[in-house]
Amino acid sequence: GEGGGGHRHRFSGEHDFVHHRAAIDDDVAEGRVDWGLIIQDDTRLYDAALGLAFDAHETLSIGFAVHGLVRSTSGLIDFAGGLTDGVSGDTTHLISQSLVVSETDVGARLSAGLQWAPHPRVRLGLSVDSPSRVLFTTSTIDAVFVAHNPRATAFVADIVEESGFTFERQLPARVRLGLAVEGEWGWLALDGDVQHAVEDEEAGVERRFVWNLRLGGGFPLSDVIQIGAGLFTDRSSDTRPESFGAARADSYGGTLGVRYDDVMSLAEGEEAPRIRFGTTLALRYAYGRGDVAGLTVAPVPDFGDAEVTQTRLSSFRVHEVGIHLGSRLSF
Q: Cα dihedral sign for 317, 191, 198, 165?
C-alpha cells in the first residue's frame, strides 16, 4: 500500500519536591539532648523529543525519536543538636552539619517503536528506549561542619565545584509492549515494560531489574458520559538504600474516573459543525511499601567517636490518594 509519514516534536517535564522536618528531644543522666533535622530535595526532569513516523503498510506504522534530557537536582540537609547540662543549663556538647548539593545533567537517548493492527479493532505496540547517556554535567557541593565539647571546638567548611563533558550511563534501556482492543462497548488496553539491571560504580549508578504493568479501559454509559478505570504497578528500580535519606518503594494502585462531554452545534457557515466540551474527574489510589535509610544518633555525643551517627534501615508504608480534574475542548 501507499506509505505516509510525518514528524512530531514533544516536550514534557516532571517536578518532584520533598521537604521533611524532624525533631527529637530526650532527658538523659547527663542532661537534656535535642536534635533537629531538615531534609529538602528538589528534582526536575525535562524531556524534549523530535520524532519521525511513517506507514510501512496499511496495518503497520514505524517511528523513531531522539530525546534531549535535562535533569536538575538540588538538595539540602541540616542536622544539628547537642547536650544541655541539667544543672547549669549550658550547652556542653554541640554538633551542626549542613550540606547543600546541586547538580545538572544534560543527556540524550534514542527511541524506536512500531504499531501493528492485525484487526480493525485491535492494536499491538512495541517500543524500545536505548540507555540514556549523560553528555555534560555540572555539580556544586557546599559543606559546613561545627562541633564543640568541653575539650575542643572544630569548624570545617568546604566547597567543591565540578563540571565537564562525559559519556556516563544514566538510565537503563526500556522495552514496552502493549495491546489495545476497542468495540462498541468501549476500549480496553494492557501494557507492560521491563528495565534491565545497571551497575556502574564510577558513575554511581546501581539499578535492579524491574517490570511494571498497567491495565485500563473506558466504557460509555451514554452519548455524553464515559467511565474509566485502571490498575497499575509502580515498582522501583532502585536497589537497597545505603546512604542517609535514600529510599526505595514499590507501589500498586488503581484509578477510577468519569468524563462528561457537552456537545454544542454551531451555526451554518462555521468551519466546524460542532464543538465538544469535556470534563474529567478521576480518583487515584496507590499503596506502597519500601525501605528508607534513617539516622541513629548517640544519646550523648562524643565527637571524637566516628560512630556518633550511624545509618539505620527502616521499613515504611504509604497510602497515596490523588484527585485529577481536567477539561478539554475539541472541534
A: negative
Q: Where are the beta strands (DSSP E) in 130-196?
A: 133-148, 153-169, 174-183, 186-195
pLDDT confidence of residue 17: 58
CB pairs under 8 A, 24+ apart, for 25-32? Answer: 26/299, 27/86, 28/83, 28/299, 28/300, 30/83, 30/85, 30/86, 30/92, 30/300, 31/83, 31/84, 31/85, 31/86, 31/87, 31/92, 32/83, 32/84, 32/86
Q: How many Å apart are CA 286 and CA 303, to the nearest integer?
A: 43
Q: Report the candidate in 5, 13, 121 with the shortest Cα–Cα distance to residue 67.
A: 13
Q: Is the dihedral of CA 86, 87, 90, 93 positive or negative?
A: negative
Is-contact 34 24, C-beta < 8 A?
yes
What is the pLDDT, as a whole number, of residue 313?
84
Cα distance between residue 280 and residue 302, in whole Å: 58
Q: 0.90 exceeded by the pTM? A: no
Specify the length of the chain in residues: 331
CA 51 vs CA 96, 114, 170, 253, 292: distances in Å: 51, 13, 22, 32, 39
The whole-angstrom separation of Cα 295 and Cα 221 is 53
Q: Is 15 left (phi over 0), alpha (psi -120 to 50) or beta?
A: beta
